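User: Hey, my collaborator sent me this sequence without any context and asked if I could get a structure. I don't really work with proteins. Can you help?
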Amino acid sequence: MKRIFDFLASFVGLIIFSPLLLFVMFLVWINDFGNPFYTAMRVGKDEKIFKMFKLRSMIVNADKTGVDSTSNNDMRITRIGKFIRKFKMDELSQLINVLLGDMSLVGPRPNVQRETDLYTKSEKKLLLVRPGITDISSIVFSDEGEILSNSKDPDIDYNQLIRPGKGYLGIFYIENQSFLLDIKLIFITLITIFNRNLALKNVSKVLKKYNASESLIKIAERKEKLVPSPPPGSINIVKDRSGKVDG
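Assistant: No problem. I've predicted the 3D structure and written it out in structure-token form, which is a compact way to encode the shape of the chain:
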């Protein structure tokens, strides 16, 4: 049922939003006359590599810098790219991946292989399902770019501040996934674009309904300052990306 819904919803969504996508594609192209699409290699279900389609929000060849995490003040982001990121237009283009079956509307966000190679055994659960355009962790950490602003090392800060919470929330989703939960998360995702605080309150309500632990609800509420912590399945905080953490 999930795959049928994904296919029909992505097909209809692409038709409805095609005028908007075409207009934004033109704006990206006219900015530097580069390809408006950026195909990012990501790790999908069962660790299969696939090409994820994104509207390009950065300068051409931005990926050559070797930095995977992006802050809001990243110099690689173009003027039109700021608009694309603010309104999640780059994720809208991923309806193509949903239509092709590489992704689902709802599921853990796909990551680059450099990051998944460092996953603990617990985090490997995130690769047992199709990655999604949105999920609980995507809503809770929708301000990822802001969190990483002014970071001297965005990749390390991502691993220390964002990866742990994303991992726990992603695993919780997988263990409790259902069609009804997916519908709820899709609606909350739309709310996030216009009112993030309201979206966080709704996420907390959903977690409580599904009997989530107090610690997980605390992560989702985002009322406290993020501090470095170990990812799921480990007791060690990530210090570098040269090797795996325990677990």
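In plain terms: The chain has a mean pLDDT of 90. You can pass these tokens on to your collaborator as they are.
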